[in-house]
Write a structure and sequence with these properties.
By secondary structure, the chain is mainly α. Helices cover about 45% and strands about 5% of the residues.
Length: about 250
């Protein structure tokens, strides 16, 4: 009997899962793999192999010489490119498809109240995409702050490198994110620190005016010039880091 080909919808939800689980957990015993396989009528083996096919396209894994599958289908490349061209649209579409088939998703959240002038669709899309982005970033970084190593999930934030309002297409792109604790997320947003394209922490001269403050030394200055812990996949994009360095980081 000929094997059943993968539909575009199945590939999209498979890529959604690829974004949400660490590379080392792509295997047939992973509950998330089993759940998705059941939802789309595939075997866990077929789903895990498809995730490995996506892994072969991941620049972060190729840079580390960590191989997924050695061969794959053209359709996988097309799905990868679809997401890369517009993460905002594809993230939401993948979450919607997951909800339809009954698989694991970030949830199509219903908002009981809506700010004046804002549509229900816009709020739902924003919440769903924020859930996708957080899940992807925590998976990439192993639920660990890339500066301090903090592992308390309640204190971790999926931080945007290029702000949410600036680049719509890359709002949910994992390469536009860092896993930071709440304190360093705020410092990053304010430009009190940045991450250089070679993945080192740079602390603003504004902070250095407070060198006598022991708290400033403990929370900020001690990390100056330190290398961040890199994600297993979806490395921070150098162009996004340069944007933050040039447009947000406070140099005086």
């Amino acid at each position: 009997m000929a094997s059943r080909g993968w539909t575009r919808e199945e590939l999209i939800v498979a890529f959604n899962l690829y974004c949400k689980i660490p590379f080392g957990r792509i295997h047939i015993r992973n509950p998330a793999v089993i759940e998705l396989a059941r939802a789309i009528g595939r075997t866990p083996s077929a789903v895990s192999w498809k995730l490995a096919n996506f892994a072969r396209l991941d620049p972060a894994l190729r840079k580390r010489n960590i191989a997924g599958a050695t061969h794959g289908a053209r359709a996988e490349v097309e799905i990868w490119n679809e997401f890369s061209d517009n993460w905002e649209r594809l993230a939401f579409e993948s979450e919607r498809l997951l909800a339809q088939v009954g698989g694991h998703s970030s949830g199509l959240v219903e908002a009981p109240e809506f700010p004046e002038g804002t549509t229900r669709a816009a709020i739902v899309r924003a919440r769903v995409n924020q859930g996708f982005f957080r899940a992807a970033i925590l998976a990439c970084y192993g639920a660990r702050c890339c500066i301090t190593g903090l592992r308390i999930r309640q204190l971790l934030t999926a931080s945007h490198i290029v702000p949410w309002a600036v680049d719509v297409k890359n709002r949910t792109n994992p390469a536009n994110g860092l896993c930071l604790n709440a304190f360093h997320d705020r410092a990053f947003d304010c430009g009190l620190l940045t991450i250089t394209p070679d993945f080192k922490v740079m602390v603003s001269p504004v902070v250095r005016k407070h060198t006598r403050d022991l708290a400033t030394q403990d929370f900020l200055l001690r990390f100056a010039d330190a290398s961040i812990s890199l994600p297993r996949h979806f490395l921070p994009d150098a162009s996004f880091l340069r944007y933050h360095n040039e447009k947000i980081f406070l140099r005086s």
